[in-house]
């Protein structure tokens, strides 16, 4: 008998018919002889509405009360599904985060799970009861409800799978798996059968928003096999797993992009030791996340140009910080360009193969696309290019790395 965790996202529980559809899927797993825990999101759109209401009550709502409000969406769906399962003749009950309990560090609005005591839930499951668990919820050291950040029910599901020692964690969503790139842009994008945790982490953080990043980190740490699949169609999805489980490794597994980048350039910065520290220190203190960085070699050895990228929402703060420090830093001008996109090719194969970066540069050159900034990590190469070339670059790279569907 296998133990499985099934997680359904907001669109999968978006209305009553869809919740009944979920009940049928759960019944199939129970009929197949499995012990099942189900983790649910709120109905799609509900959490957004709850957040909006809090913000209409106050400019800065009390984070504890914010959590009290936004955690309610999941309480509705778990109760409804438990009723639906009972209607199908199954034993089922709902569990709020505090009832299990799922304990967090109590940082309201973006809490981290610290421990899960599965004893009561496990006993109920072993006795044949389906456990229907509210995603997104935990209880903090202050004994109050805390939520795990937007998209947090993915993390609830993976954490629960780890704590229960589940054989599988199936994440049902409105896409049917992880693709080599965004299928809305590249029609030849292919669904991946398997992808490593590390590759998935890179894909998650650069724009393929299928799983909350933290859920992938958690899966990697506890070696939870996560399957991403459609709740509307019966087809195999994508398994996120250990590298050892992947027999035929591609050099490049996926190509991601992020439009949420602004290029900031400081010109004629006096070139002396400590200059980078004096620029990026204050930015870090102001919680401005800096991503790609290049420092140009100065012509006369006295001045240098510095270019880096920040997210659109951090631009205003970055400008303020740098302008305030201008007298100390002594740069000539600050300029920014939001019309850029970061394109990244990702693959664990890069560790052992040369020439992957060269192929990216060559391909973009042949399309006449200028590369503005480059950054690399062990399994990723990213370039910053003009935003208007996004589609062209993705399609050309997808073909060049042999990823196109037949
Ligand atoms: N309902 C929460 C949200 O919309 C949690 C989740 O769905 O993962 O962010
Ligand atoms: Mg989600």
Automatic annotation (TrEMBL):
UniProt catalytic activity: L-aspartate + ATP = 4-phospho-L-aspartate + ADP
Binding site residues for substrate: 47, 74
Keyword Nucleotide-binding included in the entry's annotation: yes
Organism: Magnetospirillum fulvum MGU-K5
Pathway where this protein functions: Amino-acid biosynthesis; L-threonine biosynthesis; L-threonine from L-aspartate: step 1/5; Amino-acid biosynthesis; L-lysine biosynthesis via DAP pathway; (S)-tetrahydrodipicolinate from L-aspartate: step 1/4; Amino-acid biosynthesis; L-methionine biosynthesis via de novo pathway; L-homoserine from L-aspartate: step 1/3
Record domain ACT: where: 264-348
Protein name: Aspartokinase
Organism superkingdom: Bacteria
């Amino acid at each position: 008998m296998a133990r499985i965790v099934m997680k359904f996202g907001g669109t999968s529980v978006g209305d009553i018919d869809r919740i009944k559809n979920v009940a049928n899927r759960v019944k199939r797993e129970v009929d197949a002889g499995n012990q099942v825990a189900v983790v649910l999101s709120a109905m799609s759109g509900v959490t957004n509405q709850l957040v909006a209401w809090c913000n209409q009550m106050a400019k800065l709502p009390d984070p504890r009360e914010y959590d009290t409000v936004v955690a309610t969406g999941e309480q509705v769906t778990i109760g409804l599904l438990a009723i639906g399962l009972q209607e199908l003749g199954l034993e089922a009950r709902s569990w709020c985060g505090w009832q299990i309990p799922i304990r967090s560090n109590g940082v309201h609005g973006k809490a981290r799970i610290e421990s899960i005591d599965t004893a009561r839930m496990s006993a109920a499951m072993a006795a044949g009861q389906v456990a229907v668990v509210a995603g997104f919820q935990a209880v903090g050291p202050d004994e109050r409800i805390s939520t795990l950040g937007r998209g947090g029910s993915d993390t609830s599901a993976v954490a629960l799978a780890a704590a229960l020692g589940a054989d599988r964690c199936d994440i049902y969503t409105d896409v049917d798996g992880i693709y080599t790139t965004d299928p809305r842009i590249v029609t030849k994008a292919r669904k991946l059968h398997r992808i490593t945790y590390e590759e998935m982490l890179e894909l998650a953080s650069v724009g393929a928003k299928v799983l909350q990043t933290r859920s992938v980190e958690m899966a990697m740490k506890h070696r939870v096999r996560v399957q991403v699949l459609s709740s509307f169609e019966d087809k195999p999805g994508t398994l996120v797993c250990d590298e050892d489980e992947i027999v035929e490794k591609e050099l490049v597994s996926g190509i991601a992009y992020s439009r949420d980048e602004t290029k900031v350039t400081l010109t004629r910065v006096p070139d002396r030791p400590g200059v980078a520290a004096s620029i990026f220190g204050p930015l870090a203190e102001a919680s401005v996340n800096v991503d790609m960085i290049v420092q140009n070699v100065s012509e006369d050895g006295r001045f240098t140009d510095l270019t880096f990228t920040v997210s659109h929402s951090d631009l205003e703060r970055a400008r303020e910080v740098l302008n305030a420090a201008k007298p100390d830093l002594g740069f000539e001008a600050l300029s920014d360009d939001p019309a850029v996109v970061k394109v990244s090719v990702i693959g664990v194969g890069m560790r052992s193969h040369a020439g992957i970066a060269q192929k990216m540069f060559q391909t973009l050159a042949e399309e006449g696309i200028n590369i503005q900034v480059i950054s690399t990590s062990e399994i990723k190469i990213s370039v910053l290019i003009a935003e208007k070339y996004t589609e062209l670059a993705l399609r050309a790279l997808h073909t060049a790395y042999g990823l196109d569907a037949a």
